[in-house]
Each structure stands twice: as C-alpha cells, then as structure tokens.
What does this fold into?
Amino acid sequence: MQPSRIAVAGASGLIGGALVRSLVADGHDVVRLVRRMPRSADEARWEPERRRVDPAVLAGCDAVVNLAGAGVGDRRWTEEYKALIRSSRVDGTAALARAVAALDRPPRVFLNGSAIGLYGDTGGRAVDEDAPPGAGFLPELCVEWEAAAAPAREAGVRTVFARTGLVVAREGGAWGRLFPLFKVGLGGPIGGGRQYWSYIALHDEVAALRHLLDREDLSGPFNLTAPEPLTNREISAAMGRVLHRPAVFAVPAPVLRAVLGEMAGDVLGSQRVLPKRLSESGFRFAFPGIEDAIRAAL
It folds into this structure.
C-alpha cells in the first residue's frame, strides 16, 4: 500500500498498538480514534458507547480499521461485563460503519475485528471460514459484531473481518498471563489439555492485517490463526521447552470453573480453526510453529 491516511480504533490495545507502530514505520498517516479528549494532532475523538463518530473525522481516509473492544479475558463474566463486551464491539462497529457510509468519498476498505469465537467449541473437528457459527455467548456476539458493519458493505466499501485466534505475545491477552506462570515453573495443561488452541504470533497477526488492507480483491471473513492448531497440552509442553521450565502443574477443570465462572467454558473448549482463505490469498506466515511464535514473543 502506498503511504495513505488510515483511521484506527482500538490503537491502545495489544493488536491495535502493534498495527499502528507498523503503519507509522512505513510512512502512513495514522489517525488514532480515542474516547477521551484528543491530546495530539494524530488523535480524534469518537463515542462508541453512543454509537457516535463524526464522519468528518474519517474524511480523506483511505482505510478505516476497527479493533476496539473490552477485553474478553480481563474480568470474570458477570452479566454487566458481558453487556460491556458486547456493546464495546457492536456499538462501535455500527458507529464507524454508518460514518463510513455517510462520506462523499468513502475509504477503500473497512477492516473490522472479529474472533474465532464465532465457531464455538469445535472439538477435534477442523473448521474454516465456511463453517457456521456455534452456540453460546461468544458465537452470538461475533455474529452480531460482524452484522453491525452492514452499512459500510451496503455502501460499496470493501469490508473485511479479521477473525483472530489466541495471539502469542508478552504484552497482553491470554498469553500475557501465561508467560509469568511458566517462567516461575507453575505452567501446565489446563483441564485435560486435549482442547485445541488456534494461535497466531503477534508479528503474523499484524502482517495479516496489513495483507488484508493492501489486497483490493479480498473481502469478507478471514481466520487469523497459524496453519496448524495444537492441543493445550502440546502448547504447554512447547512453553516449557522454550522457557526451560517444567510444564507439569495442570489446572483441573473444576478449579478453573470456580475461578473463571462462565468464561471457563471457552478456556476449556476446543477450537481447531484453519486460516483457509488467508493461505489461499498468498499470505505467508513468518512464525507458523508454536516454538517460533513463543520465541518471537520473547
């Protein structure tokens, strides 16, 4: 992509922050959408909780990227927090999609976040983008999340959904909590350890987002996961090898449910998700294997 103007919502998050750094390093003019009063020339305010964003903020943008949303694993899932997880994604997406559609010269692409949680628990069955949504809170959320982007798509804007898996990174997300445990020798399989985890290195996540922004022929959903999902037991063993620590302290499923509540179902669930459309589009992973992904995060 030639140097261009790109608006990014969720720029303070793990993935959004890494994407912004990558774009700025390549000479792009990035507008960071923030919910507070702007503090610098590269920031602009939006109000996702009110489904409000001034279309003028997006004027002149070649791309709009929405990665905003309350952290799924940040807190125990109370009904109040589940409502926040939902509204922070659905309302923000709807606001941006409507603003994009209202522009006289809309951006070339609207890239919206999503998650492999859409597929629900797939057990040992491998799924790709053709699979239907599963059942439960996260699948229903993801369906509604993607549907909120309809105004942009209906206005003729190329609309892409990045269905992201578990991002291997030290700075945040699920892996940000795993690294400290394994470093002190307290890591190990969760539950039975047989559930599949579909992961992706942070470097590859950003590269895939850049790929989806650049390719004018790509639209619709794309799974952002490494080519070969592994079981939690296999990933725990890899963490132990890379960090030179034992990985034997398994967390029993009943304990996890007691601590995490409803969210434990997603940690114990199995998602064997393949990046079929991303691979078919010619994308090449820099860190496809789990040990390489872990080393890259370190």
Observations:
- The chain has one domain: 5-297.
